Amino acid sequence: xxxxxxxxxxxxxxxxxxxxxxxxxxxxxxxxxxxxxxxxxxxxxxxxxxxxxxxxxxxxxxxxxxxxxxxxxxxxxxxxxxxxxxxxxxxxxxxxxxxxxxxxxxxxxx
Length: 110
What we know:
Blueprint: H1 11-20, H2 32-35, E1 38-43, E2 48-53, H3 63-75, E3 82-87, H4 100-105
């Protein structure tokens, strides 16, 4: 299902994606990128970044904590001046979105 993620990222958007690999889901101990929670990154000419993402569940109790960590990581990238998070529920997150690394780290085989 990873094909739904934006694949044509600019160099700046790739830097944002790299920065998001440092944001760890505290419940699972895996970063948001490898969990497949990041659906898209867009940075406009003014440096405003929109991160389109989801959470593993709608009632995720750590959403606000993650939002602060995401904003800090994104704004740490040179050239990014602001960050908005576009939280979506479609397409729904499934374990199929996780990278092989995340599956191995969590002991999921298949």
